[in-house]
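Dear support,

I submitted the protein below through the web form. The confirmation email said the job was done, but the results page showed an empty box. After a refresh the structure appeared. I'm attaching both so you can tell me whether what I see now is the final result or a partial one.
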Amino acid sequence: MRKSKIGILFVLSAICLGIFAIASLAIGSRSIPFSDVMHALLHSENQTFDALVVRERIPRTIFTIIAGSALGVSGALMQSITRNPIADPSILGVNTGASLFVVSGITFFHISTANQYIWFALIGAFVTSILVYGIASVGPGGMTPIKLALAGAAASAALSSVVSLIVLPRNDVMNTFRFWQVGSVSGATWEGIKAMLPFLAVGLIISLILTPSLNALALGEEAAVGLGVNIPVVRICGTMASVLLCGATTALAGPIGFVGLMIPHTVRLVVGPDMRGIVPMSALGGAILLLCSDILGRVIGSPSELEVGIVTAFIGAPILIMIARKAKVRSL
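What the results page shows now:
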């Protein structure tokens, strides 16, 4: 796709994101007209009940946009680095590793703040990434996409069992973990957003810097070496960026699946294989998908709500099947 068309698509997606962000502020257990939402945003002196409700929803909307962008870019990086079209933080077990360390922190170290959650989740995500990559690299032929997916599935199943072993005998931890495990953005706070922003900023900057090298890597390792790309450095930096993005998000929102898997696939089909287009468009696409899922969860579950992790699974599964049936997934 030409750069001009990608630019137009980027602008249209940004406009859609803005519309959904306003809808996120308007829709909930108390629906507020769009005109009142805009008035509350533009006039800080407005202290009506509707204006206060709108301001209470701002952290949740911003957190959802940031989390969706991080998951979309994280999935795009993982698929490119591993050259595996089904690579995703949840499929490769990274989310489960982060979950295990957070649960261990809650149980044995009594962690409770956003910063503590993030550090435990990042350590768990890094350790699991190294473990899965090491298992997939053992044996003849080294790491292949199939071995990587199998290693990730095996590690995810094993770590899930350990999580259950820790949680089941402890009712107090079980109550905390049960809410966190389904993936939710309803508990978003300014404190949590401030805590995760530095990690996400570093991850996004590294992602953008790596895009030319990832384009070269897509041509094959021999071609990439010929173009002067240091493959081990690119893979290590790309993995670090991906883990920072998905680990920090998982720490505060829980493991949210399908965003990192579905969005890069869809974006690649639309804008082509150039990572300079895929990374920013995956950020926008992930934010739009997570916002839509959150709004839909509030509408379906009204007067309560469905957690966003449940809705993304309901949306993601049929769309992914449709893409697989109607379009040939491009090789990486």
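Response: this is the final, complete result; the empty box was a page-load delay. The chain is about 75% helix and 0% strand.
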